[in-house]
């Protein structure tokens, strides 16, 4: 590969996902920014006067960057930007990635593919605007005199609200299925939870090559109970096999053969129960998961709706016994419960091919999680 080879992203291309350090987060997962417009600025080094002028323009126009409609991320390959403090996050809306090994800049075409780390590499400076699904909308190369800045902010002015980015509102690619569980089964599951109590649970993260359990109340608050009763497990299996599996086959031509975890979750107002935007298959320990199922067991609560930020802010609240079924790769969130308790049955579905991935990745599970059982 020649030294002059750069990646060239164009409108319609999906933006590469990455994990990189920022001033406020040593492992910022870029894919979680979906659901709003994103402006990436590849400026090389803040020590360059042209780059600094662009960053000043971003600060002067921060009205566009509120973390709701849009966010700005600058990408630097110069450690001096961090060490001297000349580049700093300024939330809401303005953040920076420390790309000192050049991995992000290579993936986006700001530096050549075979460039070595360091600042003495040829840099293509540009702004990149992404839509709420993290696909490229427009590229603005740096221009003499800063005319690119004026063009960028004029363009941002023309963009519709994020949920109308495609020119019309978009339905999230989910299944919404009433009547999966009968009301009597819902009541039994709630009673089972109340009889045994739930425990606070965290979420999976990849750290040092291992899938570990992380607890962060600002990201997730939920108490869970894992069903032990074989008869109750069989009852949930039977209904999902009869009432959800055929719908997945019809809509997605995917044939479910396996089910993971028999878990009753409780999002309560007293805990400010919620789950921030996340995906369910982004670690080695969760890579086998194909579809998530969220079956509401009650409806006497407020908040607690499931939403899909890449496709708008609309929240889904199935009736008791009804399910939302969706691909584990979709970004989704559960809004804070403001009144009462939301009880839900929350399994994952997969197939025999994914079961092989699950077994192979068992070795990456941290001891605090334990090992997956066969089956």
- Helix-residue proportion: 10-25%
CATH topology of the largest domain, what is it called?
Jelly Rolls
- Count of separate DSSP helical elements: 8
> Which spans of ≥5 residues are poorly predicted at pLDDT below 50?
none
What is the count of structural domains?
2
> Helices and strands: which structural class?
alpha+beta
CATH homologous superfamily caption of the largest domain: q2cbj1_9rhob like domain
Number of strands: 23
CATH-defined architecture of the largest domain: Sandwich
Give the quaternary arrangement of the chains: single chain
Mean of all residue-level pLDDT scores: 93
| CA-based gyration radius | 23 Å
Return the CATH class of the largest domain.
Mainly Beta
| Measured distance between first and last alpha carbons | 45 Å
Describe the global form: elongated
How is the biggest beta sheet arranged?
9 strands, antiparallel
Strand content: 25-35%
């Amino acid at each position: 590969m020649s030294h002059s080879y750069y990646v060239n992203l164009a409108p319609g291309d999906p933006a590469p996902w990455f994990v990189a350090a920022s001033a406020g987060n040593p492992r910022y997962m870029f894919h979680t920014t979906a659901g709003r417009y994103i402006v990436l600025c590849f400026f090389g080094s803040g020590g360059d006067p042209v780059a600094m002028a662009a960053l000043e323009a971003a600060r002067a126009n921060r009205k566009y960057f509120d973390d709701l409609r849009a966010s700005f991320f600058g990408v630097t390959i110069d450690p001096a930007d961090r060490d001297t403090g000349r580049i700093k996050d300024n939330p809401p809306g303005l953040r920076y990635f420390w790309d000192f090994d050049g991995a992000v800049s290579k993936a986006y075409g700001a530096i050549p593919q075979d460039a070595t780390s360091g600042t003495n590499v040829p840099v293509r400076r540009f702004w990149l605007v992404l839509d709420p699904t993290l696909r490229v909308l427009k590229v603005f190369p740096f221009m003499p005199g800063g005319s690119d800045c004026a063009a960028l902010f004029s363009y941002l002015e023309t963009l519709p609200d994020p949920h109308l980015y495609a020119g019309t509102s978009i339905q999230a690619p989910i299944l919404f299925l009433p009547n999966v569980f009968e009301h009597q089964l819902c009541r039994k599951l709630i009673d089972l939870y109340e009889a045994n109590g739930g425990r606070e649970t965290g979420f999976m993260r990849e750290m040092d090559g291992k899938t570990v359990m992380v607890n962060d109340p600002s990201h997730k608050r939920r108490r869970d109970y894992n069903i032990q009763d074989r008869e109750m497990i069989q009852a949930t299996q039977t209904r999902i096999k009869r009432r959800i599996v055929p719908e997945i086959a019809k809509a997605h031509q995917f044939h479910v053969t396996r089910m993971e975890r028999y878990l009753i979750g409780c999002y309560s107002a007293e805990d400010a129960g919620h789950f921030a935007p996340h995906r369910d298959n982004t670690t080695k320990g969760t890579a086998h998961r194909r579809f998530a199922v969220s079956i509401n067991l009650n409806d006497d609560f407020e908040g607690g709706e499931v939403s899909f930020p890449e496709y708008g802010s609309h929240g889904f609240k199935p009736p008791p016994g009804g399910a939302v079924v969706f691909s584990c790769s979709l970004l989704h969130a559960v809004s804070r419960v403001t009144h009462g308790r939301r009880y839900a049955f929350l399994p994952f579905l997969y197939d025999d091919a994914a079961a092989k991935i699950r077994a192979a990745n068992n070795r990456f599970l941290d001891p605090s999680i334990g090992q997956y059982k066969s089956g």
